Amino acid sequence: MRVDLFDFELPPERIALRPARPRDSARMLVVPGAQPLRDLTMRDLPGQLCPGDVLVFNDTRVIPAQLEGYRGQARIGATLHKRIDLRRWQAFVRNAKRLKDGDSIEFAAGVSATAVARHADGSWTLAFAGEEPVEVLLDRAGQVPLPPYIAGKRAIDDRDRSDYQTMFAAKDGAVAAPTAALHFTPELMAALAEAGIGHETLTLHVGAGTFLPVKADDTQDHQMHAEWGSIEPEVAARLNAARAAGGRIIAVGTTSLRLLESAADEARVIHAFSGDTAIFITPGYRFKGIDGLVTNFHLPRSTLFMLVSALIGLERMQAAYAHAIAEGYRFYSYGDGSLLLPT
To answer: Which domain covers residue 116, as residue numbers?
Structure first.
């Protein structure tokens, strides 16, 4: 499909620079298939679902994966986006033209890494020096890698270290937060449980490449970056049992959705999963692992706007986004949410 079909204009003032406080006070646009749109808040979510439905959250934790340093006199920026092994990470590099194989980059707080291989997409493998775990080095020298549409408008600060983590964050490895879950609070989870709505967790370590606009003219020419994920066997078994009993599987965030779809077979059975996924969902895709989605509002021309268009329909999503813009919804990672329920 032509990528320009997924373009739209967004006024800059619609981009949220801070999350709603409290988190569950964020607005929620309900897009129920062919029925009218509904303007609610995240606190209304329990009344929009049914007893027996199950929400699936991503329990990845964002690491301070953005580093600033020097190769000689040249300033180098690096955003780690995928672990290769204990000491090597794949990274997007700013000012990469000043870098060649074997160069050493000196970051803050005595942290250093060697550029050991350039990839076809322009990213680099960085091998970190020393014996301390790389996560310890990042806590010392790194910053939370906020998306550029936020970081380009204000400085990253200490609030972001907590604001950009979900209440489910438990397993280090993400470069970007599974932002749909930022809206959830213990109070909202208690209300969902009271309404008979269950929840499960899986792990997908989100990479920075997921949120990049597609630069190709046609979707068939776009290459997704792989991300590592895991679904435990007992989680898969409970999800299948819930669906067999008539419940719906509602992914919280496109990251949870993509891993569930990677783990589901043509019979709509979800299997245990451990490994990389580079699934790319565009209109025409038949969903097997999920029955609905809680998600934020996404970038134009992004793989995520293509994904929600595949779930609900391109024209329907274009109309929903036009409504959200007109009604003052806040967009992107720190913005408001939506509940997408296909017919």
So the answer is: 66-142
CA 3 to chain centre: 20
Q: Is the domain of 120 the same as that of 170?
A: no
Specify the 3-state DSSP secondary structure of 54. Answer: strand
* Residue 152, domain member (yes or no): no
Q: What is the pTM of this model?
A: 0.93
Same domain? 96 vs 52: no
Say whether pLDDT at 16 is over 80.
yes
Amino acid identity of 40?
L
Task: Please list, in sequence order, all residues whose beta carbon lies within 8 angstroms of the beta carbon of residue 91, skipping any fewer than 6 positions away.
Answer: 78, 79, 80, 81, 123, 124, 125, 126
Stretch 176-187: mean pLDDT, rounded? 97
CB-CB contact of 54 with 249 (8 Å):
yes
Q: Which residues pair with 40 in a beta bridge?
A: 28
Report pLDDT for 212.
Answer: 67
Residues 161-174 have pLDDT tens digits of 899 999 999 999 99
**DSSP element (H, E) containing 194:** helix 186-194
Please tell me whether residues 213 and 288 are part of one structural domain: yes
Residue 222 reports pLDDT greater than 80: yes
pLDDT digits (tens, 9 = 90+) for 277-319: 999 999 999 999 999 999 999 999 999 999 999 999 999 999 9
Contact 335, 325 (CB under 8 A): no
Burial class, 217, CB count within 10 angstroms (exposed 0-12 / middle 13-18 / buried 19+): exposed
How open is the CA angle 283-288-292, to the nearest 5 degrees?
Answer: 75
